[in-house]
Amino acid sequence: MAGGPTELNMVSSPVVRSLVLWSLMASLVTVTCMLMDGPGCDSVTKLYAEDLDLKLFQDGTSHPKYYRYLTIDLESNFLFVGAMNRIIGLYLKNIENKSKRINQEFKPLTKNIYTCKIHGKMETPECQNHIRYIVRNTSVPNTFYMCGTGAFHPTAYHLKLENDKFVQLNNQDLSGIGFCPYDPMDNTTVIFVEKGVPGNVPTLFAGAVTDFIKSDPIITRLSIYNPDGTLESNYVRTLRSRVDWLNEPQFVGSFEVGPYLYFFFREVALEYTNCGKKIYSRVARVCKNDYGGYSHLQNLWTSFMKARLNCSLPGEYPYYFDEIQDVYRVGDTFYGLFTTNVNGYTASAICGFTNTEIDKAFDGTFKEQSTAQSMWLPVSPGEIPTPRPGNCSALNKHTQLPYNFINFVSRLSMLMDKAVSQTFGRPIFYKADCLLYKLVVVNNIAGPRDLVFFTSTSTGVIYKIAAWASLTELDPHKTHIVTSYIPFNNDASSRLIWDLLLYNQWIYFGTDVAVGQLSVETCDKYKKIDLCLYDPYCGWDSQLGECRAKSNERRNLILYSHLDMLSYSLEESIRKLVGELYTAEKVFKISGSSATLRVDFKLHISGSVKWTKNGTGVSGDRHILAQDNSLIITDLRKSDEGTYVASDSLRRTVAEYTLAIETSKEQIEQRWMRKFDQWCDEFERYQEDVRQWERKCNSCCAETALTNRLPAIGGGK
Questions:
Q1: Number of Cβ within a 10 Å radius of residue 140
Q2: Which segments within 143-230 are labelled E, that is strand?
Q3: What is the pLDDT of residue 617?
Q4: What CA–CA distance (Å, rounded) separates 346 from 269?
Q5: FRET label pair with 55: which of 3, 96, 131, 495, CA 20 to 30 Å apart?
Q6: Is 108 in contact with 129 (CB distance < 8 Å)?
Q7: How far is CA 83 from the centre of its chain?
Q8: What angle do CA 292, 296, 302 make, to 5 degrees?
């Protein structure tokens, strides 16, 4: 089942088809129960704008400016923001800093706006110039490539950064077709490659569309010219009008890995079309040194291949998260953020894919469909030509590829039979009733295999998810949604986060109305030990009884890694490190007064607690359960004496009180005498502290007076 979903188009008998459908439904019910382990994407700790070290950039009015593209340029210390009709540079360390800022307009041509409108598009936002990428040309100092939608007329720019201002190097706007989308809502991925390309001349690779109606999606590389102006290699691209190569793709990322370039995207799956329309996630691979072929492959990739990404919950009928939304690379692993289709049962997952598993899929068998009504079947190994497609070492400027190679590549979909397997055989994180769209991954915060995921939603919420490594590398991580960052308190439904970046201790995010910057370290907001330890950036200071950043100078912090979760429960592990999690108290009260029995448990309590008196549940009008789980007893009577115990939903004892009711005059007087003695002792300690302070002060004053009477070194009288 790793190569694809249950393909009902392979089942001809109606009876068998019905049995398969019933099995699928039963499997779906089982998986739904697995997913429904919490209230969607939610966390105990929710931090709002007033709780966060939040910095915001908003350009003038509250009307949408469409800050949908962000990139970090460390050389200039700018966060570049692609907006509608402008590029903005914000100071990386503080985006609110007005003294170091770029704000330049790049409006579309009037004629392009007119053409866009007569084709039925809205003047705003569609018929405007939305900046979709800016990338530094590292081969020429302070130069950049930029592109914009140009009112459905993709436009490219060659810029130079001088004195915090962009200067356009070319006299006129260049065509951005193939590298920039027409539609602002479409995804584009662009990567700048310096080495390994034909002639070793730095150039751009991209995944985009090349026409107004999006009928010609493309993965392409620009024509390459040598420094002397001669053509080293013409442009190369995917096959035109071949939906089996690319079928309505939405690109989410591109990466350089050795001799290859990987392109991650989602597309309509042809191998599923006999059962209806379905989206699959893919990774495509091309060789950086591909010059293109000849004959049928003139100016076309000879190394293009693609494979499905398998992000699913395992089982007899796996539950697939089919639509990749974002991808992030850490070392040799790509972490993909996947969702189910928004029109069905909504869920999100994060899956990992290693370079080894990706190469294994591309080194395997190809898949083909002989006719439009046929099943998709593996290609016989004997039909695969030599050199094998995708072998970069066999490609160079003078390579004469055999005809059977050209015929094979131009005839097939270049789809691999087996999908790329996910790490651990299952998602690292998954959650139902939750749609996540952007992803940032951080490692080595807590341990060498521990991870932190930052994800965002369409409602303006950013989640911090801890993924703690298991004892062996073969077992999946233990994940926990640590914190919800909610930077927009109002109108969150319109605050879809379009881009999410991380640099050092800061998260940057772009929405249609603002660009934000917030600190990932929020340790002082956790008041319970377990909530603190779940955050990989934090540790618990048992001496001060507070949560502190691991970067703090104090080294006696208790960390999540110190917990012995293999031998004990979370509660027992923490108790062994910090001692008892609550204090059993004895309370004396006067008859007729009231008592408040508080719950001061050192761990987070989910939901309400249950109070008992001498083992029996408390009830009655005089017993009130407060919102903070405290028990309030009014009009105390002698019959209220006893041991009160509070238990949470996990059946943990979270508070214990022994309540004594004083009714006689002698008891009341004795209690007040005990209290008076305590006050006297406390007052005596206070007086002693004052006397010590006075002695130190007098000594200090005497030394100061003596110093003032002595001449300075080298001085006169």
A1: 12
A2: 143-148, 155-161, 166-168, 174-175, 189-193, 203-209, 217-221, 224-225
A3: 93
A4: 20
A5: 131
A6: yes
A7: 22
A8: 30
